[in-house]
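User: Here's a structure from my thesis project, written as structure tokens. My advisor, Dr. K., wants to see whether a designed sequence matches the one we expressed. Can you design one independently, without my sequence as a hint?
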């Protein structure tokens, strides 16, 4: 790979660069986040922050890309690595570091990208409107599923919502049927055993393609730190995937089928230790050590 080739290291958050607090994390210097909207806390190690900074200092771009709701991303910004872009809600919102105003965590939204989802999610002016009252096909589906008794989560989301199986008497098979019958203009993916619905212009792959074009980085030169079902499409699109943990059977099957493409941490599942191992592996992959 030529030295002037642009490359982006994409990274999920939960289970990838940030983990649930565990006993064996306590020997490391870590930051502990406040609880998210779903009540989950996370830890990220100081070494993770330093390694990402080293990657960027040596020429790689770093992009956080997550299914997390906008409110959770904004709450976690002071704890995340400094990145070249932050993507949340499965691609629905993209933020860049920096602002014309002297705020504590300066970021600027890609408003054109957000507007590209208006056909399904409605405009950004709806962010403060209760989900039941929002306009657009995405929220029409939300109201339909709510009337059918599904367990829904739109708290803090603006361009997507989550549907849970195993609650209110609804099975995973029934949820898969809902996914298969989703209206035109919408897409979905599974994450943590639930289904996320969002505009078909969104999704991690669509957001990543937008950023690869913006930064001039070809997909084969990019990589992805990831762990779950909703990461597999982007993992297949880039040149290499690095797994600090494996949180679904489908990811395990994919990694076993293509060991040359999926690099699984020897310490997989061991929180920040596995993250640091994979960041060192990324640096070795790009010969940035």
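Assistant: Designed independently from the structure alone:
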């Amino acid at each position: 790979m030529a030295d002037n080739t642009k490359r982006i290291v994409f990274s999920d958050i939960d289970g990838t660069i940030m983990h649930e607090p565990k006993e064996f994390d306590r020997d490391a210097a870590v930051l502990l986040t406040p609880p998210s909207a779903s009540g989950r806390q996370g830890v990220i190690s100081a070494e993770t922050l330093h390694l990402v900074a080293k990657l960027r200092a040596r020429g790689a771009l770093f992009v956080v890309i997550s299914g997390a709701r906008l409110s959770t991303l904004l709450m976690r910004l002071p704890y995340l690595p400094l990145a070249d872009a932050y993507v949340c809600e499965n691609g629905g919102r993209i933020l860049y570091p920096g602002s014309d105003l002297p705020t504590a965590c300066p970021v600027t939204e890609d408003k054109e990208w957000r507007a590209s989802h208006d056909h399904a999610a409605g405009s950004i002016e709806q962010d403060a409107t209760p989900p039941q009252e929002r306009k657009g096909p995405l929220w029409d589906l939300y109201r339909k599923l709510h009337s059918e008794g599904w367990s829904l989560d739109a708290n803090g989301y603006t361009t997507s919502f989550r549907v849970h199986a195993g609650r209110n008497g609804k099975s995973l098979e029934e949820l898969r049927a809902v996914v298969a019958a989703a209206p035109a203009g919408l897409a979905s993916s599974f994450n943590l055993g639930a289904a996320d619905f969002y505009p078909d212009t969104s999704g991690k792959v669509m957001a990543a393609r937008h950023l690869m074009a913006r930064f001039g980085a070809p997909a084969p030169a990019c990589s992805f730190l990831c762990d779950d079902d909703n990461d597999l499409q982007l993992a297949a699109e880039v040149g290499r995937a690095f797994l600090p943990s494996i949180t679904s059977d489908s990811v395990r099957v994919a990694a076993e089928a293509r060991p040359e493409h999926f690099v699984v941490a020897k310490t997989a599942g061991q929180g920040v230790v596995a993250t640091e191992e994979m960041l060192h592996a990324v640096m070795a992959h790009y010969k940035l050590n």
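When you compare it with your expressed construct, this may help: Residues 118-199 form one domain.
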